Amino acid sequence: MTSTPRLSTYWVTCADGLETLLQEELQELGVQHIERLAGRLIFKGTLEHAYRICMWSRLASRVLMPIHTYELEHSHDARDVAEELYEGAISFDWSLVFAPQSTFAIRLHAEREIKVNTQFATLRAKDGVVDSFMEAVGRRPSIDTKQPEITLYILAGKTEHTYCLDLSGDSLHKRGYRRYMTDAPIKENLAAAILNKAKLAQRRPEIFLDPMCGSGTFIIEALMILTDRAPGLVRRFGFNGWHGHDNELWMGIKAEAAQRHETALEQPLPQFYAYDADWEAVKATRQNIMAAGFEKLLDAIQIEERTLADWPEFDRSKSAMIVTNPPYGERLGEKASNRALYLGLSAKLQENFPNQFAAIIASQIEQADVLALNEPETLRLMNGKLPIYIRLGQIKPQVQTQPFLATWQPQQFEEIEGAQDFANRLQKNMQALKKWATSENIYCLRLYDADLPDFNVAIDVYGDRLHVQEYAPPKKIDPEKAKKRFNLALAAIRAVTGLGRDAIFIKTRARQEGKNQYTKQSTASKRFIVQEGKAKILVNLTDYLDTGLFLDHRQMRLRIAREAKGKHFLNLYSYTSTASLHAALGGAASTTSVDLSNTYINWSKENFVLNGLTVDHADEQHMFYTSDCFEWLKEGHEQYDLIFIDPPTFSNSKKFYGTFDVQRDHVSLIKRAMNRLSTEGTLYFSNNYRGFEFDEEIEAMFNVEEITQETIGPDFKRNQKIHRAWKIQHIPT
């Protein structure tokens, strides 16, 4: 007749938010009758249960065995908790638990209501253990806070103090493979929990991708799950020096775990992809995979330095899972750039992995909310002291959009008295531009620009929205009459385009002077993403007079995109750096953008991040400078193969001394810029000052060709003076 194994009480701790998943895991390991508390599960079980949790739990932090409870006689405000902990420790014979030649350490945790100096209380509890040994065996054990053979965990409570043996020793999230670290890594047990929640083992995808892999934690935890590798297989534990340790039982569990892993290695694995924009992260991932004992599987893992913009073609016929921890705070910084990163990531996932499963970490719920997932689930966890949100779900297929004019058809509407001529002209313009916009895939363009003197407005399309600018009427015009006419124009615009009020954004464009040109027009901050060529661009149709995208320079930007491959590109007065973005997506070796406005430089970074490109990165491929362009040119010496300059007509910003006047100062500006242009390079110069005259001195020094007609699109043909542009090169020697 076999004896029934003795049951003991055990505590299993975990990160906040993991309790439910951990309970499910413990039940799979054969544990029953679990009591769930915040950050802790309690159950009665055998030593084998405890050992199996130490070996197999991917989610737990610690496995604790309460061995002594010191009940307090009374509870009052004037408590000396430190002395209570000493009394509790000395009242138990610790020589029954471990030998005096063993080293030990104490971890103290106090319930929320308990006020205590943790450092001093820990010291007094240690004194109690040592004095207990002296009374029992006349010898004292040594303290080792870094690698103790025995760890005692003490919970200081209101009515009792509980002294536990920490069977796990070091926290179970430390698997022993993380030799190389990157910024803001996720803990191993949290990564495992996310993979557990994503049902990795059940789905067994053919592709597993972490596009921002950091130190490789998700890749390694996925390998461990799919090869049935126990997280405790090669680490040391806190029960080895315990008198009650059953080594035979433990070695049997360990042998079983080793056999399970060997058997699972015979099963096919997904193709793993581990990408990161940081070469140091790529190296860390490779080293950590080897440290985890998976060096033989490296052939199944593609570990490469890649940005989101640099993904290869994936096999659409294969099932896939994408799990990643984007650089949401410590690794990126700006909150706005973070949102742009999640928007860019979401677009890449929709494009490459429609209907596949993803689990993405965010530091703020607003970031997770932009991810395009069907029926998403949200898991809130604590990564150390930082709350994180995990958004899980199936990736929505990309909606194939067409330019507005491609889908627009002439509308039937009743005659608009007082604005019928305007409505007819607008419809005529749209019909004339429809074929071009459709064939060239033009999403943003000008539909009307003060064609009729009585309707002095500019109408632009941005995606599926309209931006209507009313040019302020002369003072001699009766304001009420002007207002009535503008309202008639808006009615005509809605009738002709078929768009509702919520898709039409209105601004009044008066002559701006000085810093007023940068003053906010609104505080609504409705920003949208529009497409131009390969680029996704953030536009703001409410806050500022300008939207973030100068439509008249579309042809110039697309030209730069075609010419930039392999070249070092410089963009002066870069505004929101859309020309730099086109250059980068066109394969530029590097881009450098310079503007005096912090607002525009931050906007520029968001545009880059939205398109999966890195900013402020150690490799300096894409750099941004908040600086006066004259000063910046004077201070540097780097050479560029392609330069674009589109200066304002006039500027008197308080950030630098003096004023800038494009007619007066273009000679010195171009000379300085040409000093930075490589011998075979090209500089494009443009401006929108209608009375501008190019100085003959520049024409004598360099090869100068006016290319204005080549840079004005069909939507601006009526307004030939919208800007002028030149191509400037060094004269061959």
TrEMBL record:
Where is the major localization of this protein?
cytoplasm
Q: Which residues form a coiled coil?
A: none
The molecular function GO annotations come to: 23S rRNA (guanine(2445)-N(2))-methyltransferase activity; RNA binding; rRNA (guanine-N7-)-methyltransferase activity
Subcellular location, record wording: Cytoplasm
Keyword entries, A-Z: Cytoplasm, Methyltransferase, RNA-binding, rRNA processing, S-adenosyl-L-methionine, Transferase
Q: Which residues form the THUMP domain?
A: 49-167
What EC class is this? Answer: transferase
Reaction catalysis annotation: guanosine(2445) in 23S rRNA + S-adenosyl-L-methionine = N(2)-methylguanosine(2445) in 23S rRNA + S-adenosyl-L-homocysteine + H(+); guanosine(2069) in 23S rRNA + S-adenosyl-L-methionine = N(2)-methylguanosine(2069) in 23S rRNA + S-adenosyl-L-homocysteine + H(+)
**Keyword hit for DNA damage:** no
EC id: 2.1.1.173, 2.1.1.264
A GO cellular component term found in this entry reads: cytoplasm
Q: Which InterPro entries match?
A: 23SrRNA_methyltr_KL, DNA_methylase_N6_adenine_CS, RlmKL-like_Mtase, RlmKL-like_Mtase_CS, RlmL_1st, SAM-dep_methyl-trfase, SAM-dependent_MTases_sf, THUMP_dom
Q: What does this protein do?
A: Specifically methylates the guanine in position 2445 (m2G2445) and the guanine in position 2069 (m7G2069) of 23S rRNA.
UniProt similarity note? Belongs to the methyltransferase superfamily. RlmKL family.
NCBIfam families for the chain:
PRK11783.1
Please give the name of this protein.
Answer: Ribosomal RNA large subunit methyltransferase K/L
